[in-house]
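Annotated sample (chain length 215).
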Amino acid sequence: MDNIYRSIYGYGEDEIIINRSRFIGYAMPIESEEEALDFIEEIKVKHRDATHNVYAYVCGRNSNIQRFSDAGEPSGTAGIPALEVIKKEDLRNVVVVITRYFGGVKLGGGGLIRAYTRGAKIGLEAGIILDRVLHTKFKVRLDYTAYGMVENYLMGKGYGIDDVIYDDAVNIFVYVRFSDEDYFKSMMTDLTSGDVSIEPISQEHLPIKDGKRLG
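Output written by the structure step:
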């Protein structure tokens, strides 16, 4: 499993007018090709009266699934430019749909390429381009006497505390970067003089932008 990959945070939508044609860029993070196809169909239904609903998507951590459609535009002027935006940004698990309402002025091949490139770009930017970084969620179980010190340490170092459950001990559920696991375990052991249980619960890629977790 890759420790990090680039994607987007969530649903994105923006629009531009080019020579009286309206271009609406949509983007969505996905986990499967089925999710990509569902999103494309959702936009097609929403804009069934549009002139074109162009799409492109990349699925898989190794970009092993790549698909696009010109949706009736001249071959090579719409779907491929949208796909190229995703690839140039090195994004994974993302789909874009660019809806066009024709405004009466033909753009020509070069104009279409620029328009659909821009449409894909604004949709992705609206979805917030960021890194998805692999984290392990740990359950840290410790004595109440060590809780204050450990909590201060975790907050000071910017660890993401997901939950705290109190019973006959304190159970802290915390997200730790996969690459920092050994250091984290060592610090928890040192801070508690070894009187601690550290149990991995799950793993997931969390959204990180400018070093901070979103959501």
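Annotation: The longest helix spans residues 108-126.
Annotation: The first strand starts at residue 4 and ends at 8.
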